[in-house]
Structures are given as structure tokens and as C-alpha cells.
Amino acid sequence: MMRLILSQDPPRRAQGAWSRALLALGMALPFVACSEVSGVSDAPLVVVTTGQIHDAAEALMEGVTVELKLLCGPGVDPHSYGASTRDVLAMDQAALIVFNGFHLEAQLSELLEREAIAAKSWSMASAFPAGRCLGWSEEGVETDSFDPHIWNDLEGWSSCVEALSSELVALFPGSASQIEANAAAYSRELLEVDAWASQRLEQIPEARRILVSGHDAFSYFARNYGLETLAILGVGNDPEADLRTMRSVADRVVEMRVPVLFLESITNPRLTQALLEACEARGWEVRIADEPLYSDDLGVEAPADTFLGAFRANVEVISTALGTP
Fold this sequence. Notes:
Layout: E1 3-4, H1 17-24, E2 45-50, H2 51-60, E3 67-72, H3 85-93, E4 96-99, H4 109-112, H5 115-118, E5 121-123, E6 135-138, E7 141-146, H6 154-171, H7 176-201, E8 210-215, H8 219-225, E9 228-233, H9 243-255, E10 260-261, H10 269-281, E11 287-288, H11 307-322
Parallel strand pairs: 1-3, 2-3, 2-4, 4-5, 8-9, 10-11
Antiparallel strand pairs: 6-7
């Protein structure tokens, strides 16, 4: 059976202006690691950055002995995550490091580019179909990268998972048939959930097919299921929204008569509350959905502690909130 090392520190959420104020005073916030290297296992160590990748690796390695280390667990924003000393040690010791890419792990870029670490690192984005990539713009200005939230495109993510299985087969050649069988089963599950989500979301009335969230994490999701997105923050989830952006989004919400705003698991809820108040000041009553969406992380409890569980939860929250009034 697969062995996982999962002793966790408390999660760190994305911080706002108050965090930078503390840092300015020399009160550095603690780094978060989601597991430690045990030092007693002879199994190869595979380090992964996000819960979505961890879930895929866990599924692919079912029945194979491996030590997995997750960097960004529940409540941790991969956009702003910084590695601790023991995380760097784990990466040095790892046989394979799997990261998302497309600049999702912005604060890890320099570390991942170190020669010794880069030689054993592989990104899921390197296998994402080019024709499915969406551009990344900040404040209306196009960047030279792509939207990194590729797991919200289940068909494209399936291609990434298949490529990951090849990387794992190269590391565990004696378990090739097991890994390949696991990959085929997991890919089928991804596509089955994709078909289910399409059927579930197509029931949303045309006038209500607008997804307003904390940061711009759902563009692939919206494209695939015929929705439109609005976000207070950009793709990179910078913790502050300027007044002009808030006004612009509020104007659009009122103009399009959007009925519901969505919180996110890693984005400051005060932003969504501020947007609601801005809409009310313009004479439009809007409400906040009862449950948050999992954008860049997974949940703590089942079923949202798995990628597909969190994805299904998002579909249910969106379809229920935007369904027939």
C-alpha cells in the first residue's frame, strides 16, 4: 500500500495589507509545510505543490510504495506560498518534484529554477493541450503567460494526468502496469465528472449564468460550461483590490443583474462583502452564496478533501445558487 507522510502545521491563508504591516515591523509570518520528511522511509520521495496534483499522484500510485510530500494544503494559497527550510530540504532529497506551472507557484519560481532542483522537476502545465490554454491578463493588460488554473478544465487536466503517469513510470519502472492502470481509471473518472458537471450546469437559466468570485480562478470552468466570469482580483490573487476595480465590478454586477456572489476558500471574505455593499449602494440587492468555492486549494473534510470531491462541491454550489429563483 502507498505510504503518506501527513503531519501538518496549521494552514496559512492569503494575507492582506495587515500581513505586510506585520512584516514591515519585523513580525514575519510563519511558513507553512504540509508534511515532513520522515527520514525513516526507503521509498522514493515525490514532492508535489498543490492538492490537485497530490490527489492525482495519490490515485496513480495506489498499490505502489511511495512517500508523498504536499506543500500547499487546505487554506494555503499557492500563488503566495513560500517554502520553509524543511521544504527546501525535502526538495533536495526528492526523486521527483511535480508543480503546476504557468506561474501558479510564483514565490517558488527561483527555487524551482535552481539547477539541482530543476533537473528533477516537472510541471503539469507542460502537458496541458496548447489549444485549450487561456491567456492571463491583469487589469486588462495581457501577460506573456497562461491562466494557471488548468485543473478546472477536466479534459485538459486528464492529459496532464496521463503525462504524469509517464513521469512516475520512469521513476517506478517495476510498477509500470499498476501505474498505467491507475491512470486509465482516474482519467475515466475525470471525464465522467466532466460530463456530469456539464449536465448539471446547463440547467442554469441563461440570464443567471454569471459567476462572480473573489479572484479570477474559474475562467476554464466558465468556458467549458457556458458561464461568464467576473472577479474582484486577478488571476494572481493579489490580496488587495483597488477602489477603481471594485467600482468596475460592482457596476457590472448591477448592470447584468447578477443575483449571487461567491466566496472562495482562500480569498479574503471581506472583499466579497465589500462588493456586496457596493452593489447595495447602487440600489441592487445581491446575496452571497451559502458555501464557498474551492479555487486553488481542497477542503479539509471529505468529500472536498479530494480534487474531484471539491470540484463536485463547486458544481453543486454554483448550480444551486444560480438555479431557478
